[in-house]
Structures are given as C-alpha cells and as structure tokens.
Amino acid sequence: PAGQDSANTGAAGGGTITMGFSQVGAESGWRSANTKSIQESAKDAGIDLKFSDAQQKQENQIKAIRSFIQQKVDVIAFSPVVESGWDTVLKEAKDAGIPVILTDRAVDSADKSLYRTFIGSDFVEEGRKAGRWLVEQYKDAAEDINIVELQGTTGSAPANDRKAGFEEIIAENPKLKVIASQTGDFTRAKGKEVMQAFLKAHKDIDVLYAHNDDMALGAIQAIEAAGLKPGEDIVIISVDAVKDGMQAAADGKINFIVECNPLLGPQLMEAVKAVVEGKEVEPRIVTNETTFTSEEAKAALPTREY
Ligand code: GYE
C-alpha cells in the first residue's frame, strides 16, 4: 500500500522510488566518501536518484529542493549546509506531500514535523571525545596550554556542535586555553591559509584542534613550511578519520582522530523505503563511531573503507 505522503503514483503503485538528494558539496574526503555511499546504495536499492551538488551554498540547496518538489519526486533527502533558514522550503515540501529526510547535518527548525528523520552522527559527542583526550593528555600541565581551533563551515551543525562539545569538556581544566578560533570551511586550502595566519600571530601554539581531517592536512603543510614538526611541536586533533587523515595519524603527524562515519547510504535507503511504504521511522538515527590514536590508526589503515 502507498504511504499517504507519496506524491508520485510510480512508487505508490509499487514502481521505482524517485529520490531527490541535495548534497552539501565536494569540500572534503568525508564528503566524497558520503556521496559515493549514497550513489552506490541508491543503485543497489533500485532507487532512482536525482543528485544535486550545492557547492556549499544554501541558496543552491533551496533551489534544488524546489526543483525536486516541481518534479514530484517521492522523497527528498538532503544534508543541510547550515542549520538555520529552512522552514519555508521545508513547509513547501510538506504542503506538496513529499516527505523529507535529513542526512549528516541537522536543521534548527522548531517544527519537527517538517522532516521524518535525521540520520547522522552526534557532533557534540565528537567534540567531547576530542576534549576528553586533550584533558587526559594535559592533566598534569604546569603551564598554560595554548590551543588554536580550525572551525568547520560557519553556521553548520558540525562546526557549531564540535566546538560546543570540545569547549564543554576542556572547561574542566583552566590551563587549556583556546587562543584563536576561525573557520577553515572544512577545506584543505582554507585550513592551510588560516593556520599560516595563526602561526604568524602566535609564537606559542601547543595544540591544534581541527573540525575535520582536510583542514588538519592543510594546516600540517603550513606547520611544516614554518619549520615545525606536526604531531610533536604542535599536537594535532581532528575529526572524520578518512584515509588521508588516518595516514597522517599513522605517520605521527596527527595525534588523535575522532571518527565520523560518512557511509550513510544504506541507512538512508532503508529509511526512504520505509517512508514511501508509509511506515513509521525513528525520528533520530545515530551512527556508531570510535576514535583513533596514532597506534590505532596504523592498525586500522589496511582495512579502512574510506
Ligand atoms: O566532518 C567534514 C565535511 O558534515 C560530518 O562535513 C560532515 C562534515 C565532515 O566537510 O569533513
């Protein structure tokens, strides 16, 4: 039987499900792995995928969603680049009877009926994991520990939450001080550029906390160019655990990585099918994740999928 929200008789009649998906962009290794996972699992599930790349711009995502509504797709899924400003377009999808699924990043809409479920990581917990490792490393510190932070895309859920979770934990030890914090937009190029500026402005950086591996990898280039040793002169923590990040950890250049799993495709396709069939889905589906020290990264690398 058709779900009452099925806008398209194709799926309602047991035919092929059409899903419009608006992706954030192609800003990082994480994102490439996420895109691949979604494309491959749509294919495996026999779901007709209309894929649109927003190049990190909310206006492009809003346009893509409106076009999916016009095309009367069965389901719209998207990874919102920023948290705010979605109510109007999500209301349009709701009025058109097209169910929406959030993947990877959250929206801050108060009206939870605007989407069926949110599949993705707990970014606050990721920030806490980074903070806990640091607190433990410096529990006997006699002097101030100067931390610089490379934030993800301004206004994005992972940037907001990874910052908040980290701050919450390091507040336990007043010696741990964030002396500079700026966005590097989740890219290598920006990570490098901002780290260069940090190194110029501050002679005494002890720790870098980067909200993703790509920014850490860019920053490593800047640190090496400044004649310093990443992982030794500056302790580095990052998030994601994509292959290049794990390699840098295995090489001792990144000291600690918090994993963020990009392989959300299979869970998304399951949720899409359930929603089209009119079944209830859990409003929040959280992905399981771990952390890696250099030693653990070395051991995990050979079998790493992304
Ligand atoms: O950590 C980063 C990417 O939203 C979890 O986006 C994702 C983040 C990921 O650009 O590398």
UniProtKB/TrEMBL annotation:
Compartmental location: Cell envelope
Residue ranges annotated for the Periplasmic binding protein domain, each copy included: 21-280
PROSITE patterns attached to this UniProt entry: PROKAR_LIPOPROTEIN
Record keywords, A-Z: Signal
Claim: Cytoplasm is one of the keywords in the record: no
GO cellular component terms listed in the entry, alphabetical order: cell envelope
UniProt cross-references to CDD domains, sorted A to Z: PBP1_galactofuranose_YtfQ-like
Record's protein name: LacI family transcriptional regulator
